[in-house]
Design brief:
Keywords: DNA-binding. GO terms for molecular function: DNA binding; DNA-binding transcription factor activity. This is MerR family transcriptional regulator. With 118 residues, the protein is mainly alpha-helical. The protein has two domains: 58 residues, Multidrug-efflux Transporter Regulator, Chain: A, Domain 2 (Orthogonal Bundle), CATH 1.10.1660; 57 residues. The protein has five helices and three strands. The chain has a three-stranded antiparallel sheet. β2 and β3 form a beta hairpin. α4 packs across α5. It is flat and about 60 Å long.
């Protein structure tokens, strides 16, 4: 990739993630930039940003980086053995975790109402 794409600071601003988090994702192989400038700066494509946003959406559901990587590998290669099963398992787990999260938000809202009445 030539000097086209977004630099890491721009991606951090757009995604709401920190530069440190984006670097960590690159180091552990969850999402890496598609290219680099001649000076060695990371450059992220639109597809890279979509992948980062998918990861960001998984974070509140507390998926591990390993689970995210496995899911993304399955999405990237849906015809490989086990990919559809991985996607189905993550889908089911996401639904379960979302329900737990909704319940926790409900408790937090109840608490806030109680505190406001003090």
């Amino acid at each position: 990739m030539e000097d086209s794409g977004m630099r890491i600071g721009e991606v951090a601003e757009r995604t709401g993630l920190s530069v440190r988090t984006l670097r960590h994702y690159d180091e552990v192989g969850v999402v890496s930039p598609s290219g680099y400038t001649p000076g060695g700066f990371r450059l992220y494509s639109g597809d890279d940003i979509e992948r980062i946003m998918l990861i960001r959406r998984m974070k509140p559901l507390e998926f591990t980086l390993e689970e995210m990587r496995g899911f993304l590998d399955a999405v990237d290669h849906p015809d490989t053995p086990g990919a559809r099963k991985t996607i189905a398992l993550i889908r089911a787990e996401a639904a379960t975790r979302l329900e737990k999260l909704r319940r926790r938000v409900g408790y937090a809202e109840e608490f806030l109402r109680l505190v406001e009445d003090l």
